[in-house]
Amino acid sequence: MRRSLQRPEISEEFEALRDERWCREGSRQVESAIDAERFIERVGFAACLTDSRRPGPSLYVAVCGRRDAVMPRQVQKDPESSLTWQIKDEVVRRGQVYYGKLTRGKAMFIAPRMVRWFHAIWGVRRSDERKRLSPDARAILAVLRKEWEMATADLRAESGVVDRQAFTRAIDELQAAMIVVPSEVVYLPKFTYIWTLAVGRFPDALRTRAGRDVALREIARCFLEHAGMTVPGELARVTGLSRADAGLGNRALVVEGVATMPARGVYVIADGRGRVS
């Protein structure tokens, strides 16, 4: 008879640490784009509109300022959802932190100091574009490399990718490859995104090569320093890494002495680090 394995729980000590670091407290909640940029820079990376039902730091949860924040079904009428959306748009326009849909279409903010490590995992080099990008994605990219910045409708027309679904798939593909990012959201006279090349905003980080093993370790380090501990599958869910890659990153921290592994798949920050101030 197969035994069910009980998932390890996050201790209250580390939940309190997360409350502080991830702005899950009313006294620390995010209220502006500048607050959001400071939050993202501090935690290294964060989701945009996820709530307490998914692990990891989230702009929406930070705007709510509480651990148990759950996004309502009618987000249009919810003031916290609306504020999060407004802050997201302003952060995108300011361009001080990286924003885009990465693996599995997950919209994430990345602090500038972490961009090189994410790019080492998900980025596509120019020499690999022909074999790794679809024809539609390459057509859009060719236009952006010529024009540098363009609204959705104009980009569809110029690239020849006029089908909406095909265009969306190609843009998501380019975002996941960390080549294209939204630079602005425009609502009048009609809603549209303005698209640009990511390298224009983060040239140094996206042109610096980094080893995959080092990148996995640094992404794991960034998460663990602010989470205190991580349980099986958590880092993978937060970042979009495979569980195997997340494990490689976490185990590298154990070898370095930054973390301990008290149980299979459970990693805890070493004593004296990551304590609640």
Walkthrough of the structure:
With 277 residues, the chain is α+β, with helices and mostly antiparallel strands. The strands form three sheets. The protein has a three-stranded antiparallel sheet. It contains 14 helices and nine strands. The model has no long low-confidence stretch (mean pLDDT 92). 49% of the residues lie in helices and 14% in strands. Strand 2 (98-101) and strand 3 form a beta hairpin. The radius of gyration is 19 Å and the shape is globular. Among the domains are: 12-114, no CATH class; 124-177 and 179-207, Arc Repressor Mutant, subunit A (Orthogonal Bundle). It has helices spanning 12-21, 33-43, 59-64, 79-94, 112-122, 129-132, 135-147, 152-159, 164-176, 198-201, 203-207, 212-227, 234-239, 243-256, and strands at residues 45-47, 98-101, 107-110, 149-151, 180-186, 192-197, 229-230, 259-263, 266-269.
Largest sheet report: 3 strands, antiparallel
Main β-sheet, spatial strand arrangement: 1-3-2
N-to-C terminal Cα separation, in Å? 47 Å
Per DSSP E runs of 2 or more residues, the count of β-strands stands at 9
Radius of gyration: 19 Å
Overall mean pLDDT score? 92
The dominant shape is globular
Strand content: 5-15%
Number of helices: 14
